[in-house]
Amino acid sequence: MQEQKSLSEGIMLLKVWLRQRGLDQGYGAFSGYIMGMYVAYLLKRKKLNNAMSSYQVIRNTWNQLSREDWTQKGCTLCPKEIGPQVSDLHLFFDVVFMDVTGFVNICGNMSSEIFQQVRRESALAIKYLDDHGINSFSALFMTNLPFYRQFDHIVSFDAASVRKAEQQLGIPARLDASGPWFTHLGIVGVLRQALDARVHWMCPQLEAVGTWSPVDGPPNPSERPFVLGLALDPEHALALLTKGPAANLPEAKIFRDFWGERSELRRFQDGSVCEAVVWASAGGIAKRRLVCREIVSYAAQKHLGVDNLLYIADQLESVMQLGLGEDGALAVAKACDALGRQLMQLEGLPLDISSVQGAAPSLRYSDPFPPAPYMAFKSKDAFDTVAMKTSECKNKFISPIPVVLNLALSSKWPEDLEAVRRIKAAFYIKIGECLKQQLNIISQPFPTHINVLKDGFIFTLKVYHAREVSLLKETTTPQGLIRYRDTEESLSLEMQYVHLPKLTSALHGLHMSHPCMGPASCLAKRWVSSHLLLDDTLMPELCVELLMAHLFHSPAPYQPPIQPQTAFIRFLQLLARAPWTSEPIILNFREEITRQEIIEIENKFNSERSTLPPLFVVTPETRSGTVWTKHAPSSQVLYRLTQLAKASLQTLDKELLTNENFDYKLIFRTPMNIFDVVINLHNQLARKDESLDATHVDRPKTIPDQANRIPVVGLDYVQCFLKDLRESYSDYALFFCDQHGGCQIGVLFKPNVLKPQEFAVSHTNGHIPKPPKQMELSQDLFIEDVKILGEGIVKSITVKD
Amino acid sequence: MLMCLPQLTSAQFKTAKINLFLTNASMASSATQICGFLAIPVKYKESSGASHWLYCKEHSVRVKTTGKPVGRTLFVINVPAFFTEDCFQKLFGEFGTVSKVFFHKKPTASVPEEETSNFFKKSEPVKGYKVAYVVFEKSSSLEAVLKLKWKTPKVLFGKQDKAPPSAVQRWNAAYDEQITAVADLQADIDDFMRKFDEKAKEEADNLKQSEGQADEDGWFTVTKKVRKPGLARKESVEQRVLQKESKKKAKKELLNFYTFQIRESKMNHLAELRHKFEEDKKRIAQLRQSRRFRPF
């Protein structure tokens, strides 16, 4: 075997594959030795031969491994029928693989969970090899899969709990077991019975035993915690009720014994009367994800006598109070649908409204703070405009929900941009009138849009007219020839009115098939935002969402997650890996891009890498790959994100499984000492309810419907201030701020701008003269400008020396 | 000076010019001059820590416009965001009346279009640092401004002046400005559309009148209204026509008639194959480098 290079290479690859999945080290692991023996076994059985390439070796090994089940039918390397029968050994061992003597079971201490995990991974590996959309080499061999990122939920029993469970289960001490191995089996057995179909699989954590000094003796395995990962089954895991057998069957007794007083008889809709356990009363979907936690803690208490479990599932979400986001988004979507239907049925409009498409992040379930239905604003006195002015009302920040209206086709539109703008405005006025007359919905028309109040939400409706885009593109050559060229305005119009609604519906669809994508995006956005990078000029929120969608669309080497926290951790891993430098990110929704086209895109990407934006995202609608990422993020911002993600992951690696009192907000705190200047703002002006340390405020539940005014919408002073700062200084400095209630703005000067420069008419902004021929950007003047631009909002300014 | 010009040789003329320039420079030597610009320090408030510097110079361009008359217009760059027309009035008021100020983001020779509607602006307001063209009523004011030494910074908003709006007030005002009474908006739209329709009708009438009549050179104008409107003057249409033409041409040509043609086509084919092979090799190298794992 040694002489065969391809064989030894194949074994090496297989060992790397095992190591990346953390399956080959620790007590009861599927070690590299077993893998080597298995390849020898396959060689003997003529499943492999010496002429095979290393690729064929690993492929065939995986293929065989995924088909065999050593827990039912073990295999042996022993050529003759000496020693005990393999079938007899199954009575004593979980997994059977006899060595060449026929007397030693080299898998003797392996639990069936570990073996099944290896089998599943082999089957997955074959799938990746066959799937051309996946870069299988990196997924199989290059990516490390730490234990806690592979599972949705993680249960950790500390050493004391394991001892308690040992007593409760009545497991006698045995000679051959290293540590509380049989107790572990018992715990797994109880949890398996409790969770049943809710988990796809569960797998204990294997931990390599390190070196120890000869004086102290080896570390005692019974001092270590027992950690179990659960991969949830999306179909069953969220059920609020565990249905047992019919009451008159003998199995009902077992069920009753297992669940104790929680078990009750229930009549179901199909008329059957069954034993059942109800876990939680109706709650949001965020609560339903935690039914498994309730089940595990109940079963652990009843059958194992353990009541202090470390259950890792939703710590990040609960810290960030995201549960509100999901239900809030649902309410927004419902109101938007209702408004859409009403708009399409309006009568008396010059042109019918043919479709209504939402474009807000809350309609993609990815707004960490979706707009809440606000308290009704009502004026008794007469008023000029339905919309309130800033002097009339001082409400909290309310974000409007953008909606795009498409009208029925008509040939009567004027061929002039100015006239089109007027016609659209006239249309808004007409919509406002019809809404008031026919449905008693109040609204305020503006020259560019109309704000409509529906169910306490404020929708900003805009009409899309396709001819407008081509009018913007149209130029006439001196010869009188009409040509169409993309301009900045036409591209941004197209993005807002065409691509954004389409992407919104595509992401909404993806969220529907993976219901944890929305909350995971919220977490990711909150994380990016608290590191001061979520901004249209730095890291646009859509880019975060697209990266998250990529994670769900091509989850290799993982399975799509069920728990947002797991998805978020994998998102950090994606950022840390930074795959965008070497490959395009292709979001092939509904498999609309053919394989041939993908190859073309990849070729284009490889040949034109330097001219393309740092982040290159392709969706079926935007195949050029530059629509969303043309202006931002820059490679510097992406690099910073990568660094931050690495640091966050390191912290999680270290703390998540071991530290019960870990402060999860830690990974959301950003260092402010990197900035040249820090501007401190009066925090009552920021959106402080959304800040990291805000205490949770109850949102108003009831909406009085006699509102007759629309409050101030979308006026965020911090964003106004940032915009003004960027208008003045974007050539020389970058500005960073947490859009969710951040009250500090970090300023970073671009390199070399503070040095004296040659006088040039185009670059004098903010410079003081240094006669005879030079000028200089003055930090004092910059601070003076900050004070002037932010008078009334700036509290203090700190300059790094 | 002008009178004695014909007697000077060209070299002498150059020195004369340089002398003139030198006297100008030495005249203002005590003022801060930088590359031909006069630097004027300005303070926002008495308490301000640092002062802004305006760089100005007489406006001179080849393209002359009546809006920015040469000799009366001061070209100012590095104008801070808070500067308004009133600020210039305050700054230069003592030298004479400022009749108009134009703001632009970049130096521009033309005058911005006049706004006709309160609701539909033709151009966005200029924000951030900007350039300004200050038009004085008299040319003497401009000269006086450029002659002054501008040593101490002028305070724009002193104690006795009305305080400028704070940032929050500015943002509030900008927000409130968008909110308009529906009737006003409708009236503005109706007014514009009436004018627009009138103009469109007038144009259509003009076209109709000129139809079928030769102009002074004897050309007829073909309009869309006639029975055969002809081809649209679009780029795509022209390309299609050209493509058709080249196809027709290619059909007529015999490519394998002469021996040299056959030989050449064979050679080209070979070169193309080689080129493709090289490309593929490059591609495979690239794949290998990025560790793509697709054996077949």
TrEMBL record, chain A:
GO terms for cellular component: CURI complex; small-subunit processome; UTP-C complex. It is found in: Nucleus, Nucleolus. One of its GO terms (molecular function) is RNA binding. InterPro entries: NOL6/Upt22 (IPR005554), Nrap_D2 (IPR035367), Nrap_D3 (IPR035368), Nrap_D4 (IPR035369), Nrap_D5 (IPR035370), Nrap_D6 (IPR035371). Belongs to the NRAP family. This is Nucleolar protein 6. It comes from the Eukaryota. It holds the Pfam family Nrap_D2. Keywords: Nucleus, RNA-binding. Residues 7-144, 148-304, 324-511, 514-670, 673-797 form the Nrap protein domain. One of its GO terms (biological process) is rRNA processing.
